[in-house]
Write a structure and sequence with these properties.
It is a single chain. Helix content is 62%, strand content 3%. It is an all-alpha fold. The strands form three sheets. The chain has a three-stranded antiparallel β-sheet with strand order 6-5-7. A two-stranded antiparallel sheet has the order 1-4. The chain has a two-stranded antiparallel sheet with strand order 2-3. 50% of the residues are buried.
């Protein structure tokens, strides 16, 4: 899950507290504004543009615009009505209702629900579930035990750990949660004869590539699919293939660098410090506790928690995949959406808390804290959906869509997919929040797929690939800058390490999008 505010963990070892934000002379350094500030600015800018962009509508069929039917219409509301829409934009973004007659959205209207309340609640429940699981200690201890068992198989350990973090990224957008693992992975990689960059690559790049190739990540795939008017399971085969290819590519890149550093420490991009262990120490102590004792035993209770954690995400995948559309007749298509999924994660959070030994009070506290921690992402979705409501109420959404349609008309399905990927790259820099980016861009970009003759799931995949690719390096992300601070790796060194991989990922994503559009 990525909110990408401009703060890093205050306890970072290289000065990530408040003083790190000051320039010499005591002046505070002003970084890139937060996702909230960006979205508020976008809201005001879009509201102003509704007085400039002419109003227009497409005829629709089954909820999709019909090509060639765009026509100008009279602006449906005046200045004071639009000022009220601006005031109510966040509220409409949460639980606005669209009147079928006028097409206007308002909190007290009768008609179809247009707000993001379902997504909002779902994000809170995912936060509750993840936080409850983390508080049991099962996730951290599970990774520690895995590292201990594979300590004599360096390459296998790197691949397995990177894959584990990639799975976290592709299933639930693991981002801020990675910050707690550097205390484990940095000493482990140093003991194995690697450097701090390898620890960053395993944790941050592993989770980031998984998020880039999200399969059912609720903060990227889920929000984007909802905004595009399709199910989360649509396009999952392409996304599964993308996850497998990109994770394999990343693992090979990291292993190659790690082997080079192990063979010749002078080739490391991160010079060793006095506290770093030398390669001569690499064969001893990896994955052990104090005084060489083995890492703490993973109890049956915590193994059960890990099983419940994995099973919940596996069941979510099963519940959202349209099996019948894939020709799988022996599995039922449940067709679950955000209301059912929110209930699933709430129930799972309670079960995990009780099974994990948190007790009634501990579980309730973790659920509340987890929902609070993820409220930022939920509020961003609400704000972004409010922008969409502003455009729809002013009848300018279809005008923008018509301009974009004319720009991409005549392109092949493959070129269209590539264009959608490239368009989303600058948007990802502007709105680093994956969920905010999705809620803001998908209502405009997804209908273009209808004109290009490809599925809307291709646009969703292009968006999340661009967002994930950018968020591997964005300097406004607490995940990137906080992770580098905790690992004591300079940002310029990290860019030098990751630049070739970014180029390879760019080419691989382009090829996969071309293939996906061709067979869609």
């Amino acid at each position: 899950m990525t909110i990408s505010e401009n703060t890093s963990p205050a306890a970072g070892p290289t000065g990530t507290g408040p003083d790190a934000q000051r320039r010499p002379g005591g002046r505070r350094h002003r970084g890139f504004p937060s996702a909230f500030t960006v979205l508020i600015a976008v809201t005001l800018a879009v509201w102003a543009l509704t007085f400039v962009i002419p109003a227009g509508r497409y005829d629709t069929r089954d909820g999709s615009p019909v090509p060639g039917t765009y026509h100008p219409v009279e602006a449906p509301s005046g200045f004071w009505d639009r000022l009220k829409d601006l005031f109510l934009a966040p509220v409409n973004g949460l639980y606005g209702v669209t009147d079928p007659g006028s097409g206007l959205t308002a909190p007290g209207a009768d008609g179809s629900f247009a707000g993001a309340a379902g997504v909002f609640l779902f994000i809170l429940m995912v936060g509750a579930f993840v936080t409850v699981t983390l508080r049991t200690g099962a996730l951290g201890l599970g990774v520690a035990r895995l590292a201990h068992r594979l300590r004599h198989h360096r390459t296998l350990l790197l691949v397995v750990l990177l894959t584990v973090f990639s799975l976290g990224g592709t299933t639930y957008g693991m981002a801020e949660e990675t910050l707690g693992f550097y205390a484990l992975t940095v000493p482990l990689m140093l003991k194995l004869g690697y450097d701090r960059m390898v620890a960053v690559a395993v944790v941050m790049v592993g989770a980031g590539v998984g998020t880039l190739a999200s399969t059912v990540n609720p903060f990227a795939t889920g929000v984007a699919s909802d905004s595009a008017g399709i199910g989360t399971g649509d396009g999952i085969l392409l996304r599964l293939a993308m996850w497998a290819v990109l994770t394999t590519l990343t693992a090979a890149y990291v292993v190659r660098y790690a082997r080079r550093v192990h063979a010749d420490p002078s080739r490391s991009l991160v010079p060793a410090t006095d506290g770093d262990r030398s390669p001569a120490d690499a064969d001893t102590g990896a994955g052990t506790g104090r005084d060489g004792e083995p890492a703490a035993v993973l109890s049956a209770r915590l193994r059960t928690v890990l099983g419940l954690f994995a099973s919940t995400f596996l069941f979510m995948i099963f519940a959202v995949v349209p099996w019948s559309d894939l020709g799988v007749t022996f599995l039922p298509t449940l067709g679950w959406y955000f209301p059912e999924l929110a209930a699933l994660f709430l129930v799972a959070a309670v079960v995990v808390g009780l099974v994990g030994g948190l007790g009634e009070k501990g579980t309730a506290s973790a659920v509340t804290a987890g929902a609070g921690d993820f409220a930022g992402a939920a509020l961003i979705v609400m704000l972004a959906r409010g922008v969409t409501v502003l455009m729809n109420n002013a009848a300018v959404t279809d005008t923008v869509l018509d301009v974009l349609h004319r720009a991409v008309s005549g392109t092949s399905s493959g070129l269209f997919a590539i264009l959608m990927f490239l368009v989303n790259i600058p948007l990802a820099f502007l709105v680093p929040s994956s969920s905010g980016h999705a809620a803001l861009a998908m209502p405009i970009l997804a209908p273009l797929a209808d004109f290009a003759g490809v599925g809307r799931d291709v646009v969703v995949t292009a968006y999340q690939s661009a967002s994930g690719w950018v968020n591997l390096i964005t300097p406004t992300s607490a995940v990137v800058m906080g992770g580098l601070a905790l690992a004591e790796v300079r940002y310029d060194r990290y860019l030098r390490f990751v630049a070739p991989l970014m180029a390879m990922l760019l080419l691989a994503v382009g090829g996969l999008l071309l293939a996906g559009a061709a067979v869609d």
